[in-house]
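As a next step, we paired sequence with structure tokens, yielding the entry below.
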Amino acid sequence: MRQLGQEIMRSVYSKKANMAQLLNRCRRAACIVIMASRTASTSSKKTTRLKQLLSSPELTFLMEAHNGLSARIVQETGFQGIWASGLSISAQLGLRDSNEASWTQVLEVTEFMADATDIPILLDADTGYGNFNNARRLVRKLEDRGIAGCCIEDKCFPKTNSLLDGRQQPLADIEEFSLKIKACKDHQKDPDFCVIARVEAFIAGWGVEEALIRAEAYVNAGADAVLIHSKKTEPSDIEAFMSKWKNKAPVVIVPTKYFSTPTTKFRELGVSTVIWANHNLRASITAMQNICHQIMSDQSLINIENKVAPVKEVFRLQQDSELKLAENCYLPKK
């Protein structure tokens, strides 16, 4: 790359250089940059990186995203992985988190997210969108689209969001759900694709013993990790589970409700991965509400222009610079 750059500069200052030669070398430079960026982004499999995050001795983090743009922002911020939240994806479609969005619609959103990023994505796949047959088909389709893993919860289809108050949260039969996990693992093509079993015992009002029984059954069925969910405002459910789990498999948590718990506490408990599960969605809702109210009130843009991203930032996030390089490489020069 450096050598080609030197050649181009010599051509600019050479009396012998003609425009055709210079354009040809510029085209070569653009093509090399494009190919180099593609090679860098595929240096290791996303599935492998997600598996390494889950099994790391250090506490790791996944940040929520719900479309291609938010996924790219998560990556740019420095996060090593993305949580494709079912709540957030359904909300940005204007739907409830009750399986109102079809699994193919969710799949389409995650494909845009995967195309926009180089880091692994873990999909919040609800209950797997049906029985074992639906779930194993989902895994194959996720693999086709470059998604690194999925998290499936042990509730009944159609699901109800775990944080809704006063709703019944019926759990799936343990054997049935274990066989669903096994079907997913048996039918994945990539051995590093991750299937995480989400244990909803605490959400449904059961105690730690039920959570432990379910988690162990799912790990024995092949789950790469378990997600232990709780809607308490303090981490007592997680503490109770971790004290008896004995590190049988990686544990993932979602501290949306117990947000005031210091992250050092999760490290002390031996948690593997923390998911910041819906905060980009919620931040965007607040921002849009505020901007809409101000524009409606002012009937002007004068007071909001310095509060929003410049249009140039939109173009940057869309990677317009890559398109300019590609045009230089692949469009004919007149």
In short: The two ends are 25 Å apart (CA to CA). The first strand starts at residue 60 and ends at 65.
